[in-house]
């Protein structure tokens, strides 16, 4: 077809499109491996490496941000003298913060900033875990857990799946090439 001939010609000439992007014209005209609006779909090894890295990040995120609390709560109760309901209120506050943060995080991922969102959230989570280890007041603990809860929306499964789906496209997310 005429579109395919144009793509082959553009490849030979190294034609550039908008903002000097050589892939733009290929995408606009349906080049090979094009994912409309998202760039080129990654190859199978690249997709596998990305999924592996995200899997490791998920294990670390869930372990440190979600499952660590019940393991530490009893020791905190003994050491700081706080009541168990007061401690567990922090988890409730965190889950409410996660639900409030889900929409802006999802909007940022939809704009193509998923990797930046997840990386920034992971760094912020590390800092908040350090703050958690030094907390002395119950209200400070609630603030830290509200922030950690907000980061749940940016580090756990939903953003990871969205980043993979956005990067691989509809056909690439089903199975590696």
Tags for this model:
elongated; 177 residues; 8 helices; 2 strands; mainly alpha; two-stranded antiparallel ribbon; single chain
Walk me through the structure.
- The chain has 177 residues and is an all-alpha fold.
- The chain has 8 helices and 2 strands.
- The chain has helices spanning 2-13, 24-28, 44-66, 68-80, 84-110, 114-134, 138-155, 157-174; strands spanning 34-35, 39-40.
- It has a two-stranded antiparallel sheet.
- Helix 5 (84-110) packs parallel to helix 7 (138-155).
- It starts with a helix and ends with a helix.
- The model is unreliable at 25-37 (pLDDT under 50).
How would you summarize what this structure contains?
By secondary structure, the chain is an all-alpha fold. Helices cover 77% and strands 2% of the residues.
Gap between N and C termini: 25 Å
Shape: elongated
Rg measurement, Å: 22 Å
Mean pLDDT: 80
Low-confidence stretches: 25-37
Taken as a percent bin, the fraction of beta residues is under 5%
- Please bin the fraction of helical residues: over 70%
Q: Quick one: how many beta strands?
A: 2
Let me know the largest β-sheet.
2 strands, antiparallel
Structural class call reads: mainly alpha
Strand order of the largest sheet: 1-2
Element order: H for helix, E for strand: HHEEHHHHHH
Total number of helical segments? 8
